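Hey, sorry to bother you again with one of my protein questions. I've been puzzling over a protein and I'd love to understand its fold better. Take your time with it, there's no hurry, and the full record follows here:
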Amino acid sequence: MDSKKLKHFISQNAIYLVLLALVTAIAVYDPRFLSVTTMRDIMLQSATRAIIALGAAFVLITGGVDLSAGRVVGLTAVLSSSMLQVADYSRRFYPDIPDLPLFLPILLAVLAGVLVGLINGFIVAKFSVPPFIATLGTMVIVYGVNSIYFDMKPNESQPIGGLRADFTNLGSGAFGSESYSLPYIVIFAAVIAFLVWVIFNKTRLGKNMYAIGGNINAATVSGINVGLNLLVLYAIAGGLYGLAGVLEAARTGGATNNYGNMYELDAIAACVVGGVSTSGGIGTVPGILAGVLIFGVINYGLTFIGMNPYWQLIIKGLIIVAAVAFDIRKYLSKK
């Protein structure tokens, strides 16, 4: 393989090579890292982060950014948990509410996420407010609304616990034996990833999304209804954040109004590291998932080998800066 082909191969597969290098380095230090249990735990912890990152990608590919993602996760975690507690729990959020069908609180929570997404999309599309500012405002508003709800009597800002077994099973249950099991939450994430791949690659909405991110003026001239497409894309993103919040509450067995704090930055970082261009118009589902797994390996793997968590932050930061610098360099070379 000549040098040009080698450079092209590395540039096209850099994200996967970095992931392989991380896993190899940690496994050399401690071979136990390659156990089935460890891999399952990494996937378990990365599942909800993957769903959030996939939601964030809808906005990033249009050339925007969504800072409300983490707070929507917190809102939907609290909403779903507050309606799915066991009847005899001493600090029940709704003491007199009957046992609701499992799907109903989950649906309400996801719809709350969609509503926030619609608001974001409306502000961006109708008033031409930069996405950074629009979603920064909704981020603060959503946290305020969630905190007021969380502080309602009789809960009064106490962590929500005592969740029903059928709910927590969504986050902690699995197919197979204890040694070789596949968590339900990982299956949910895989299904969502497939559906997002279909939207990205096989639908008009996906083509319009890439066109808007590539050149919004050209997309408008070509007859694309930019405003309507942005509204739908932000709504889908909000719905995915909402689903992630529900699953995160199910996985951890509880919720507070601070759930999801800073998750939006992890999601954006995973997307950028996974090849989603900061300039818009570029991004793939496999790349995004690889980005999520890289940070999953960093968080879990470096803790596994006993590395100081502050060094983990430094490594994550260096990877993010390198990814953005590489992306900008590619963008400038094309110009």
Summary: The longest strand covers residues 174-176. The CA atoms of residues 80 and 107 lie 9 Å apart. The chain is about 70% helix and 0% strand.
